[in-house]
Amino acid sequence: MAQATQSAEVDVEIAILGAGFAGLCMGIALQRDGQHDFVILERATEVGGTWRDNHYPGAACDIPSHLYSLSFAPKPDWSRVYPTQPELHAYLRQLAEDHGLRSKIRTGHDLLGADFDDARGIWRLTTSAGVITARKVVSGTGGLSEPKDPELPGLARFAGTTFHSAAWNHGYDLAGQRVAVIGTGASAVQFVPEIAPVVGHLDVYQRTPNWVIERGDRPYGRAAQWMFRHVPGLRAGYRAALYWKHEARVLAFVVHPALMRFPQRAAVRHIEAQVADPALRARVTPDYAFGCKRVLISNDWYPALQRSNVELVTSGIREVTPAGIVDATGKSRPVDCIIFATGFYATKNPIAARIRGVGGLSLAEAWKDGEEAYLGTLVRGFPNFFFIVGPNTGLGHNSMVFMIETQVAYIQRLLALMADADAARLEVRADVQARFNTALQQRLSGSIWATGCKSWYQHDSGKITALWPGFTFEFWRRTRVFDAADYELGS
Ligand code: NAP
User: Which atom of ligand 1 is nearest to the CA of 151?
Assistant: First the structure.
């Protein structure tokens, strides 16, 4: 790829937003292409993205470590099947070191506004540490990076401590305290079993039960780690086997949702094996199809709910008082601390209001009826702006790191297309984006995710904006074999 030649007019050729998996992977790819005129703007003080921020007790990934890592940066000595947050964060820090990215990363640069200057064809990025102009922007800010607090009547009056699972307050000593956890999603099922033995009393507020299956975690012994390092092809073969095992799940998610009855039966058996009380069984059993909301994996969630100091509250929350929480039946429970395990702005991410493209239109306005992009990467009206983990690139069945690498390679191809055509501006054609999304939504309408539950995969309008509706290798193929006529190139 041609080296940037016009840097005199802008601070950098390319600004990458975020130093998580996506931003670091993009930076490494640019360096490989001989493009060194870039910066990575990071709002925090360290790299790591979601694996820096989600440091709650028990935080770990639900995708096996040998698959949830970059293909070009293998780690033979993963400590266990499912990587823990400290290990993943260390992996990402090491990645930044090994690839000499530290000098490119500007920490403490929170994006306050990104404005496209149509006349000059550049992006003006206003950050908490100053303004930076760039010819191109790659957003790697993540789909689940803005924690969402619940809107509960009276919450502002609460006299105790509150914090979100994605901003865990380790300075607050939970020992012996009366604690309420709101939410029972992927984060809660990990930290509730960890804090339950520590706190005095724990109320777990469940709005909707989730399907939970067994977690087949185990440590990798020294011998296995040695073999992954030294036996030719073993680690790569193991990774490939994990990939295809996960990929096969798409058949049930999208192709034949009726197949979900088999894992659903396993989930029912998991409840029956772990929950003796029929009344509790009924309260933790979802009334929607397995896979419609994100499936959780845990061996200690149901046991935690049955501890003598834990109460599962399913009657809803009427209000928060200065001293505690009143449920929908009027019963009041005093608490010292409320932990929000209430998820993220997967749609309507506040950052969208701060990104303004051609004519000053914000992404939030462009996406008012639901986020959409072309191959999760390009949005009409936002020239030279590339998304990683953009709309409809999320997965319910496989590793997001695969999608990130695929999108990074796609962006490299788009940048090469621009360089080859000596173009200063690239946009996807409006009709191409529209056709792509019509077909995408049609496929999603037959998926398990559209069978009637309410999930963070959906925009308020009901449109499924988070997920890719198919095999990840299809996404790979479509980003690899692309038609230059789908794009408008300008000087
Ligand atoms: P989440 O899955 O969105 O769960 C949020 C929970 O809070 C749900 O139980 C939700 O109930 C509840 N809730 C939200 N607002 C509420 C309100 N006002 N009142 C009462 N309850 C409320 O969030 P998360 O657990 O943080 O996980 C988000 C995603 O992050 C996961 O799905 C996953 O993709 C990723 N993640 C992955 C891992 C992992 O790999 N192990 C771990 C953590 C997170 P409803 O269901 O009724 O909306």
Answer: 18
